[in-house]
Request: fold
Amino acid sequence: MINKPDYNRAAMKAMEMLIENNITETPVYCLPLLVNYPHVRVMSFSNMADTSEIDREDLVPQFRDNQDAATFRMNGMKDVEYVVVYNMRLPYEEIRRSIARELGHIVLGHDGETRPKEVRMAEAKCFAHHLLTPRPIIHMLQESGMPLTMNALVHTTGCSSDCVDEIQEIPGVSVPAELNRKVRKLFEPHIMEYIRFHKSSPRKDTSPVADFGTFMDGYEE
Reply:
């Protein structure tokens, strides 16, 4: 059994998904990526309650710690390998993160057997944050010389303070520089437009500077 998270692979898979789907703007919308992923069925807790004819208030507590979203691997079904359920009553930013995390479980092939739960969760969160807050975007903002504030981060990636708190738990990864350049090329027009607008604005951004911990360690282009 593999007992250490493979952060490099998780980050690479997220970046490859951005490239394969030609995503060029933020915030990255993960629900379409999940819905269109092969052999995946997605439903809200409410939809699942209706389908199973169980009251939602009785159903949701059965998910215990997974109150935002959960993924089930199906055995013996012809066209569906994974079923993902999510809580659509949460704030949008939380839904986006939880959907990205569950997509990470699927893309990384987590089966509940080859990796302990905490390892799977660490890899899935790493995937989610490299998908939602790609490091090339952060690097572009840093290069511009503008303060990398929470407002700048929210406006360019949709990442909130809760998101940054999770990012601080993710170590820097080593991925091929060419992969970083490809992702940068996708987002560069969108981000450079924001940078130009910010620099021309007479209003000063007084929001706190975002602390990414070790997330940007090892980055290269």
User: Anything to note?
Assistant: The chain is about 50% helix and 5% strand. The longest helix spans residues 177-200. The mean pLDDT is 89. The CA atoms of residues 100 and 128 lie 5 Å apart.
